[in-house]
From TrEMBL:
This is Probable methylated-DNA-[protein]-cysteine S-methyltransferase protein. The lineage of its organism: Bacteria, Pseudomonadati, Pseudomonadota, Alphaproteobacteria, Hyphomicrobiales. It holds the Pfam family DNA_binding_1. It comes from Rhizobium etli (strain CIAT 652). Its EC number is 2.1.1.63. Residues 91-173 form the Methylated-DNA-[protein]-cysteine S-methyltransferase DNA binding domain.
Length: 187
């Protein structure tokens, strides 16, 4: 059986340097921004050690342009991007498909995604594991999936949960607690 060839490129956005890797089947890896091209390349190749630098295809170039628009704060939809999820568990693929339906400026929870898939509340932990292992963060918008009660939860990308918060804020999602219903009279 022939080994799949993955090419990649590193590019700059308003949020920092991102990396994208692809095969003939679609986008296989995406690296969220870091401060340097070298750091991004190192992180991308950690998950794709056989990757080779390459010239992006027209579809990859369109995705790169969409990522740049995203980090400029422009509403962007990645649901039509072809993905190469070879090697991913079947249930994880279902979780990823459900997460891709969570649009710009919206959030859901691990438990709500599990319920949407017809699984019990115990599957929320599997949803969290799928999000942590997401090979194409942003394109599969794991940053839009929160912990119970709308808490930020974890985020395995550079910057951790603060990066997740910044991405949600870029989409207009405010995770601050609501103001009190009753205001003080000031005396």
């Amino acid at each position: 059986m022939a080994q799949t060839i993955h090419h990649y490129c590193i590019f700059e956005t308003a949020g920092g340097f991102c990396g994208i890797a692809w095969s003939d089947a679609g986008i296989a890896r995406f690296q969220l921004p870091t401060k340097t091209a070298e750091a991004t390349e190192r992180l991308l190749l950690r998950r794709l050690p056989d990757g080779e630098a390459g010239v992006p295809t027209p579809d990859v170039l369109a995705t790169v342009a969409a990522v740049k628009r995203y980090f400029q704060g422009e509403e962007t939809d990645f649901s039509g991007v072809e993905l190469d999820l070879a090697g991913q568990d079947g249930f994880f693929r279902e979780i990823y498909a459900a997460a891709r339906r969570v649009g710009w400026g919206h959030t859901t929870t691990y438990g709500a995604l599990a319920k949407e898939l017809g699984a019990g509340p115990e599957a929320a932990r599997e949803v969290g594991q799928a999000m942590a292992k997401n090979p194409v963060a942003l394109i599969i918008p794991c940053h839009r999936v929160l912990a119970a009660g709308g808490k930020i939860g974890g985020f395995s990308a550079p910057g951790g949960s603060s990066s997740k918060t910044r991405m949600l804020e870029l989409e207009g999602v405010n995770l601050a607690p609501p103001p009190p219903a009753q205001q003080s009279l000031g005396f």
